[in-house]
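Side project, low priority. Logging it here so it doesn't get lost.
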Amino acid sequence: MNEKSIKIPGPDHPITITPNPARIRVIVAGRVIAETSHALTLQEASYPAVQYIPREDVDMSQLQSTDHATYCPYKGECSYYSIPVGGERSVNAVWTYETPYAAVAEIKNHLAFYRDRVDAIED
C-alpha cells in the first residue's frame, strides 16, 4: 500500500493565504475566462505567489476536465482543466484542490491558472 505523506506548513515551508481585492482577469484567445476581485493569494515557501480564483468567477463552460492529477503533501490531491480555445498550449492550464488539507482549506472551490498557458493574467 502506498500511503501519501501529509505535511503541515511551518517555518521550514510556510504557506500563507491572503485575500486579494485587486481585479484579476484571465484571458485566453481573446476571451475572458475568469474575472474577480475576490481572489486569494497563496504564497508557498519561496515559490512565486499564485492567485486562486473563486469557481463562481470562472467561466466553467470554457474549461474541460482532464485525467491529469498530481499530489502535494501540503495541499492534497490536485485535479486539472484544459482551456480548449487556447489549443495545445492551454492543456492542463488550470488546477484546483477539490478537497484541500485543513491547513489550506480556504482554497477549496478556487482555481489557479498557469501564467505560461494563458494569454494573460491581468492583476
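Brief comment: The longest strand covers residues 64-72.
Revisit when time allows.
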